[in-house]
Amino acid sequence: MQQPPVLELTNLRKTIKGKDIVKGINLTLYPSQIFGFLGPNGAGKTTTIRMIVGLIKPTEGSVKICGYSVAHEFVKALSNVGCIIESPDMYQYLTGMENLLQFAAMNKAISQQRIKDVIEMVGLQHRVNDKVSTYSLGMRQRLGIAQAIISKPKLLILDEPTNGLDPAGITEFRNLIRKLAYEEGMTVFVSSHILLEIQQMCDIVSIIKQGSVVKTANIQDLLQDNDKIEWQLSDPETAISLLREHWNIQASQLKKNTISANIGPHPLAKLNEFLITEGLALTYCSATGNTLEDLFLDLTVGDEIV
Amino acid sequence: MFSLIENEVIKMISKKRLLFVIAILVALISVFAYGQHHASERIKTQLSQRMGISATTDWHKIADQQLIELKNRLDSPYRDEKDKSALRVRIEQLQYNLDNDINPLEQSAAKFTTKFMEQSIFLFLPLLIIMLASDMVSGESSSGTIKLLLVRNVPRWKVLLSKFLTLIMLEIIVLFFAFVLSEIISGLFFGFGGWNAPVATGFKLVAGKLDTSSVLNVPQWRYTLMVYSLAFFVSFVVGSISFMISVLVRSTAASIGIIMSTLVAGNFISYFLSDWKITRYMFMVNLRLTDYLSGSFQPIEGMTLLFSILVLLGWASASIIISFVYFTKKDILV
Amino acid sequence: MFKKSMWYSILVIAFVGFVILANGFYQAILVTTQANPQPTSESAPLESTTDLTPSSKNPNTIQMLILGDSVAKGTGDEKSKGFSGYLSEYLKNNTSKEIIADNVGIDGLESTGLLEQLQSRRLEQQLTHTDIVLVSIGGNDIRSILTLNSFDKENEFKVRLDRYLSNLKLTFQELRKSNPNSTIIFLGLYNPYEKVTNLEDSQLLNSWNFNTQQLVETDGKAIFIPTYDLFKYNTGRFIAQDGLHPNSAGYQAISNRISRSLEMIIAGL
Question: Rounded to two decimals, what is the model's pTM?
Answer without folding.
Answer: 0.69
